[in-house]
Structures are given as structure tokens and as C-alpha cells.
């Protein structure tokens, strides 16, 4: 009962914070934001959820172990770095689509890289925090 | 050629797959590996005219000039034949000796690995390839010596052997690095051309010392000999293969290989003479006091190795020939004796010479092999040992300088070695069979055939020494001394002084055996000497070093994170303090400082208060809260100086950090006020210097 306010808030805050983290991720190429801070915000969202509802329900919500975000993120980042090789350009050259997407804006390999960073940061932060809070 | 060298490694890597199948009765199949290689190397002999080398080169690390280049000349072929030839017999012997052993497949894997490494070493022309194979022999021999891994003594002696030979390898690398840099090439053959330049170079002495250290460690020369008797903990096939015929000769090979490059310099020759001469006497004296068959053989091996080094030190064409012959002789008789010892141990369960006797009645073929080996060891005609010993005496007699002393040293050593060989080769078989040994049976042929083959080979080569002469020893001598004269090995030289010396040796040895019985008094003296022996000194060093390491670690790596951080910060601060006191002029241009706004002033004050609070508060929770305040203040400062990106990241990170801290709070140990105070002082000090330092 003590947690009622926290729980109610967390219920609303989780999607909002996640949306905010995505927002930061997407605008990150030209404006303040980016994959790193986006990933941390997302991690905070889940940690908040864990405080309110307990670690088990957060794990249930996530469905996968947070550690699995890391290899996916790293793979995406490496993939985005190697992508230019297919076109005969040096590694890590920025590639951009000609037409901007609605809402998202211009999409390029840099965004893919940022998504990778986002996932790695999220995975690392959640793994550390979950592991520690479980062992306490 | 590459396949021949690598086959040992290939087989070793396949063995885990076929191990189960191999452990059964098919273990004999493994003998095919050395046999094939032996035949292959035999087939190379005719294509080895006296002055030509077969060179096969494969690129490995091109940019560093490291190629897998293999050179087949007389010297390397002699060693390759010995390695594979004795390998055949050891592999065959092993299949019976280790029958039913749970890890027989593993053992064969190590053996193959070792054989491959050994072949690679003697055939390599590139010094770095040689070094790699040299280290591989050390490592594979570590596995072989420590094969009985459930025994503490076995593990310990394996570790000692690895430590000593590994240290030698380290010196070898140093020697090779210097050699390669000075000569400008990594090929040994090309180095021979620039030999004079090398000998006059100021770095010649360091190179020589490093090379000697490596060779002496591998070939068990005084004072690095002590690992060899310890290595006798290994199963007998290992002792036979590694510690009589092949690995311990690696050092001899190294010295011989570099004789044309670096040899014939007084320092080179005299060092070898002194070390080799001392080792052969020292070890021979030790050998006659031992009672365990394997220990006797170990010390007599060290002594023989000393003699080889001694002959290398003489450096004349005759001495080098004597050395080459003696290498073959020693490999033949010592391997025989080891194999015989293994059989005795296997069948009777003891190796104590005071217990064993009369075994000829139950295992005649073994007794014949032991007797033949003893004859060859003692240099009694008509064995090849006699030819070898003649050559040794001839070369000591004709040496310049201390010919008499050297000859006397050689004669004494040989007398003692003869005593040891009688003890190992005749004593267990002669006399009456004690009742305790009556149940002993002749082992199967796979055990007694190998030593018999080796013993007979010694005899045949004695009658027909020219088998060795043209095909292999000639080219081998040419590899050492390009301008060597023609030579002919003969069993019978006619009546001369050398023959007289041989007679003295034989008579002396037999008389010694007849009348000398090592008593308890001698053993006591030896025990006293043991205290100052290099082995003991090394052990003492090891022990004290470990104590030192433990204390050192418990001081530096105490496991307290807070102490680590304290130490790091303390030293950083001290360094900065030193720098800022001595060299740096700190000046702040107050005119350029932007005016302080009221918001900044407020944030700064909060920041400072929070820092002081965080450092000195005894409560952890409030310290963490204060840390959070500090973080947010820093964020605000970022915002003021227009870095919203940074501020945002810092803000998020700080939030997470505080959460983390709260989570791990319960795990922290209790700290006293003293500790808090101590950390506080260091922190404040650090910040003070940091602030002084940053404006500049």
C-alpha cells in the first residue's frame, strides 16, 4: 500500500520515459541527445519500474535477459560500420537514404550505429543494476 | 619437408579424436610415425653430398623476416636420425610399458608433440623458428615429466625442469635478438658469412653468455644441472627419449650449430672447457654414490653431456669429430641402459642396485642388451664406444696448452663412468638370483627388443665404423668445420699411447668396481655438500621468493577497494604536488575571467557545501545523497556553459549512479571515523592540488 503512488506514477512514467528515450535517440544526430543518453534514460525507466513493482515483474516485462541486448547492439553497430564496404567505400563512411522518413527524418547508417549504442548501454546498465539488486 | 616436421604436431592434434581406439591393442600403430620419418630422413642421406645443403623454405611471418626455413646438412640430419630412430624404439617400447594406462593416448600425443618440436628445432635455419621449436620442446617435456600428475614429486620436478629450461629459453631469445640485429639476417647459414664481424662486435660477449646459459640449462651443465635427476620422476620411456638421447642434446646441438658462427674465440672455448670439464667430473663423482638405477644414469648422462661440451670447447677438428661420434655412442648406450632399467623396474618393481642381482637367469635378452651397453659405455673393444673414446683421448692429447690436465680429467671421468655403467648394466644381472626376485618373468618382445637392437647397433657400428663415416659424420663435420680434413674411423689403431690410456681406463674402472664400495661416510659427506649445491640454493631462493611475493601481494593487493583508490589518489596528488612545486608557475589571468553571475554563485556554493558534506559525513546514505547533489550541480554548470548534450548525459548517468550506490550500500563494510577522516584529508588535498593545477 505504501507504494501506491509510486506504482501509479511508474505505470505512466514507463511508456513516457521510453518514448522520451526514443525521441532522444532519433534526434541525436543533429541535436542534443543520442544513443548513449537514450539508452540510459530507457534503463532508468525500467529501474523505476523495478522499484515500484519488483524485479521479477520487470524481468517478465522485458521477456529477454537484458544481457542479450549487448550482442545485438554490438552487432548492429559493427554492421553499420561494415555496411559501406558493400558499396566499396571505406569502413564507417556515413550512408544516407535520399528521401527522409516521416517523423523520423533522414535515415542513415549513423542512426543504425546509434541504435546499437542505445541497446548496448541499456543492456549493460540493466545487467549491472539487476545483478547487484538481486545479490543484495 | 614441412610435412615431415609438422607431422608430429598433426598427429598430436588428431590423437584426442582417435584416443579411445588407440588406447587398446592398437597402440603399436603409433610406431609408424617415427618409423616413417626415420626412413624419410635415411633416404635423404645419399642426396647429401659433403658440401651441399638441402634447404626448404616456407613463408611464415614475412614482415618480420621469420620463415619456416629448414636446413638439412650433416649435423641436422644426424640429430634428426637420432630423434626419429630412437623414437621408433621408444614408441614401440611405450606401447608395452604403458599398457593399460588410462591416458596412454595423451602420452603418445605428448611424445609426438615433443618429437615434432625436436625435429623442427634441429632442422630450423631461421633463428626465431629455432627458438619457437626450442620452447616447444621445453613445454612438451614439461607435460612428459609431469605425466604422473597425481604425484606431487612428479609435478614439482616438471615445474623445476620447465623453470630452468624456460629461463634458458629466455636467454636464448635475448641472444638471438642481438645476433639477428647485428648480423642483419635471421638465417644461421647467412650468419656464418658474417662470423668475423660478429666476433669483433662489442656485443659478442653478451651474446655468448646468453647463448651459453640457454645451452647449459637445456643440456644440464653445472650449475644448472639439477633439474635432470629430478626429471627422472617421469615414466622410463620419457627418461630414455628426452633425458638421454634427444632433448638434453638440444643444448649441444645449439652450441655445435653456432660453433662456425661464433666459435674459435678464446672466451668461447675456455668457458666451454671449464664448464664442461667441471660438469663431467662433478656428475661422474656423484654417479658412483647413487643406488637408484635411474639416478646413476641421470648423473652419468650429465657427465656425458659435460664431456660433449668439453669437446666442443677443445674446438679442434678432431675434437669435434670425437664429439659427433660420442653423441651417437652416448645416444645408443644410454638409451639402452634406460630401457633396460625400465624393464627391470617394470618386472621387479625396484630400481635399487643393492637389491637387484642375478636377473640374467630370468631375462637373458635384457641382460645381453645391458651387457652390450655397458661394453660400449666403457669403451671396451669391439664396440663403437671404444672408437669414440679413442677419438676423445686423441683430441685431448693433441690439444694445445693443458693437454695433460685435460687428458687426466677425461681419463678420470671415464673411469668413474665405467664404474657407473657396470653398476647399471652388469650388476643387476650378475651373481645369484635372490629368492625375492624368483618370480620375475621375461617381459614381452616389445619391451626387450628395443634395447637389444640398440645394443647390437653399438656393436655393429664398432666393427664397421665406416657405415657412419661417409654418409653422415662427414657432412656433419663439414657443417661444423668447412675445411675439415678427411678422416677414417677405425676400431684398431695399432699399439699407441691412446690405446694405453684406454687400457688404463678399463683397468681402473674395473679395479674401482672391485674394491670400492660406497660407504655411509661418503654419503654423509655428499649430504653435507648438498646444502651448498646449486639445487638447494635454487630451492631456497624459490621458497624465500614465494614468501616475499606473498607479503608483497598482501600489502599491495589487499582486496580493499577503498585502499586502492586511496593509494592511487595519494600518489597522483603527490606527483602533482611535486610537479607544481618545482616547475610550474601557476598564474590566473583575472582580467579574462568572465563575471560571476548570481545563479552560478548559488550553484557553486551548493556544490562546495555538498562536496564537504559528502567527504565528512559519517552516514553513507547522506554521502550518496550529497554525491547526487554534486552531480546535478555539475550538470547545471554544463548548462550554464552551453553544453546541454553533456548536461543531459551527466544527469542521466548521475541518476543511475545514485541508484547503484543505494543498491550496493548494504554490502559496504563498516568504516570507522578514522577511515572517513583519512579519506577526507586525501580527497581534499587532491582537490586542492587539482585546482592549483588546472588553471595552468
Structural commentary:
The complex is a heterodimer of chains A (about 140) and B (about 700). Chain A has about 140 residues and is an all-alpha fold. Chain A has one domain (about 5-135). Helix content of chain A is about 70%, strand content about 0%. Chain A has helices at about 5-25, 35-55, 55-60, 70-85, 110-135. In chain A, helix 1 (about 5-25) packs antiparallel against helix 2 (about 35-55) and helix 2 packs parallel to helix 5. The relative contact order of chain A is 0.17. In chain B, about 75% of the residues lie in helices and about 0% in strands. In chain B, strands 1-2 form a two-stranded antiparallel sheet. In chain B, strand 1 (about 55-60) and strand 2 (about 65-70) form a beta hairpin. Classes of the chains: A mainly alpha (about 140), B mainly alpha (about 700).
Characteristic terms for this protein:
heterodimer; A: 136 residues; mainly alpha; 5 helices; 71% helix; B: 696 residues; two-stranded antiparallel sheet; 28 helices; 2% strand
Largest interface: A-B, 17 and 14 residues
Structural class, judged by helices and strands of chain A?
Answer: mainly alpha
N-end to C-end Cα span of chain B = 66 Å
- What amount of the residues of chain A lies in strands? under 5%
Estimate the global geometry of chain B from the Cα principal axes.
elongated
Number of helices of chain B: 28
Amino acid at each position: 500500500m505504501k507504494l501506491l503512488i509510486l506504482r501509479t506514477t511508474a505505470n505512466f512514467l514507463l511508456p513516457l520515459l521510453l518514448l522520451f528515450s526514443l525521441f532522444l535517440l532519433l534526434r541525436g544526430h543533429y541535436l542534443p541527445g543520442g544513443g548513449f543518453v537514450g539508452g540510459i534514460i530507457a534503463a532508468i525507466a525500467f529501474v523505476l519500474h523495478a522499484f515500484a513493482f519488483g524485479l521479477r515483474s520487470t524481468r517478465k516485462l522485458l521477456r529477454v535477459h537484458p544481457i542479450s541486448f549487448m550482442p545485438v547492439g554490438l552487432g548492429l553497430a559493427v554492421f553499420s560500420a561494415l555496411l559501406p564496404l558493400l558499396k566499396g567505400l571505406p569502413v564507417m563512411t556515413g550512408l544516407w537514404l535520399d528521401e527522409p522518413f516521416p517523423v523520423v527524418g533522414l535515415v542513415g547508417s549513423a542512426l543504425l550505429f546509434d541504435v546499437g549504442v542505445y541497446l548496448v548501454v541499456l543492456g549493460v546498465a540493466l545487467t549491472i543494476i539487476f545483478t547487484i539488486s538481486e545479490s543484495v | 619437408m614441412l610435412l615431415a616436421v609438422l607431422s608430429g604436431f598433426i598427429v598430436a592434434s588428431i590423437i584426442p579424436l582417435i584416443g579411445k581406439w588407440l588406447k587398446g591393442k592398437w597402440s603399436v600403430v603409433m610406431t609408424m610415425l617415427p618409423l616413417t620419418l626415420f626412413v624419410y630422413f635415411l633416404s635423404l642421406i645419399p642426396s647429401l653430398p659433403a658440401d651441399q645443403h638441402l634447404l626448404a623454405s616456407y613463408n611464415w611471418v614475412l614482415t618480420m623476416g621469420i620463415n619456416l626455413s629448414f636446413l638439412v646438412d650433416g649435423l641436422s640430419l644426424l640429430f634428426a636420425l637420432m630423434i626419429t630412430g630412437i623414437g621408433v624404439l621408444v614408441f614401440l617400447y611405450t606401447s608395452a610399458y604403458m599398457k593399460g594406462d588410462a591416458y596412454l593416448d595423451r602420452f603418445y600425443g605428448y611424445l609426438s608433440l615433443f618429437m615434432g618440436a625436436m625435429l623442427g628445432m634441429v632442422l630450423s635455419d631461421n633463428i626465431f623458428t629455432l627458438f619457437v621449436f626450442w620452447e616447444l620442446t621445453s613445454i612438451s617435456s614439461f607435460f612428459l615429466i609431469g605425466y604422473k600428475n597425481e604425484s606431487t614429486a612428479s609435478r614439482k620436478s616438471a615445474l623445476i625442469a620447465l623453470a630452468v629450461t624456460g629461463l634458458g629459453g629466455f636467454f636464448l631469445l635475448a641472444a638471438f635478438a642481438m645476433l639477428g640485429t647485428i648480423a642483419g639476417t635471421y638465417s644461421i647459414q647467412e650468419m656464418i658469412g658474417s662470423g668475423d664481424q660478429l666476433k669483433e662486435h662489442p656485443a659478442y660477449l653478451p651474446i655468448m653468455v646468453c647463448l651459453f646459459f640457454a645451452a647449459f640449462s637445456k643440456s644440464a651443465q653445472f650449475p644448472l644441472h639439477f633439474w635432470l635427476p629430478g626429471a627422472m620422476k617421469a615414466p622410463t620411456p620419457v627418461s630414455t627419449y628426452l633425458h638421454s638421447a634427444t632433448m638434453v642434446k638440444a643444448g649441444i646441438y645449439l652450441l655445435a650449430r653456432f660453433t662456425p658462427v661464433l666459435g674459435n674465440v678464446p672466451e668461447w672455448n675456455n668457458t666451454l672447457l671449464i664448464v664442461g670439464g667441471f660438469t663431467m667430473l662433478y656428475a661422474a663423482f656423484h654417479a658412483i654414490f647413487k643406488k637408484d638405477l635411474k639416478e646413476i644414469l641421470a648423473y652419468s648422462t650429465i657427465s656425458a653431456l659435460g664431456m660433449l661440451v668439453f669437446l666442443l670447447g677443445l674446438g679442434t677438428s678432431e675434437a669435434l669429430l670425437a664429439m659427433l661420434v660420442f653423441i651417437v655412442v652416448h645416444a645408443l648406450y644410454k638409451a639402452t641402459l634406460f630401457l633396460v632399467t625400465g624393464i627391470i623396474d617394470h618386472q621387479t618393481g625396484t630400481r635399487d642396485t643393492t637389491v637387484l642381482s642375478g636377473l640374467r637367469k630370468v631375462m637373458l635378452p635384457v641382460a645381453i642388451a645391458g651387457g652390450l651397453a655397458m661394453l660400449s659405455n666403457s669403451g671396451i673393444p669391439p664396440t663403437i664406444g671404444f672408437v669414440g673414446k679413442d677419438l676423445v683421448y686423441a683430441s685431448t692429447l693433441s690439444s694445445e696448452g693443458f693437454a695433460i690436465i685435460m687428458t687426466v680429467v677425461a681419463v678420470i671421468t671415464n673411469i668413474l663412468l665405467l664404474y657407473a655403467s657396470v653398476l647399471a648394466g652388469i650388476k643387476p644381472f650378475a651373481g645369484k638370483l635372490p629368492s625375492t626376485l624368483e618370480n620375475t618373468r621375461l617381459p614381452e618382445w616389445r619391451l626387450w627388443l628395443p634395447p637389444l637392437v640398440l645394443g647390437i647397433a653399438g656393436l655393429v657400428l664398432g666393427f664397421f665404423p665406416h657405415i657412419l663415416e661417409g654418409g653422415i659424420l662427414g657432412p656433419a663435420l663439414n657443417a661444423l668445420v668447412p675445411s675439415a680434413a678427411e678422416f677414417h674411423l677405425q676400431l684398431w689403431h695399432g699399439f699407441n699411447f691412446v690405446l694405453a690410456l684406454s687400457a688404463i681406463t678399463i683397468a681402473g674402472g674395473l679395479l674401482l668396481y672391485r674394491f670400492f664400495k660406497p660407504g655411509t661416510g661418503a654419503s654423509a659427506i655428499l649430504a653435507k655438500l648438498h646444502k651448498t649445491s646449486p639445487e638447494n640454493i635454487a630451492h631456497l631462493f624459490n621458497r624465500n621468493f614465494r614468501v616475499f611475493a606473498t607479503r608483497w601481494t598482501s600489502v599491495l593487493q589487499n582486496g580493499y577497494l577503498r585502499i586502492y583508490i586511496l593509494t592511487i589518489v595519494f600518489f597522483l596528488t603527490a606527483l602533482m604536488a611535486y610537479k607544481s612545486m618545482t616547475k610550474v608557475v601557476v598564474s590566473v589571468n583575472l582580467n579574462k575571467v568572465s563575471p560571476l553571475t548570481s545563479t552560478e554563485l548559488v550553484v557553486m556554493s551548493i556544490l562546495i557545501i555538498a562536496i564537504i558534506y559528502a567527504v565528512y559525513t559519517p552516514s553513507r546514505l547522506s554521502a550518496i545523497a550529497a554525491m547526487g547533489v554534486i552531480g546535478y550541480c555539475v550538470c547545471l554548470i554544463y548548462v550554464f556553459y552551453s553544453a546541454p548534450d553533456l548536461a543531459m548525459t551527466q544527469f542521466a548517468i548521475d541518476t543511475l549512479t545514485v541508484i547503484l550506490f543505494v543498491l550496493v550500500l548494504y554490502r559496504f563494510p563498516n568504516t570507522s571515523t578514522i577511515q572517513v577522516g583519512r579519506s577526507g584529508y586525501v580527497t581534499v588535498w587532491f582537490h586542492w592540488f587539482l585546482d592549483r593545477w588546472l588553471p595552468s
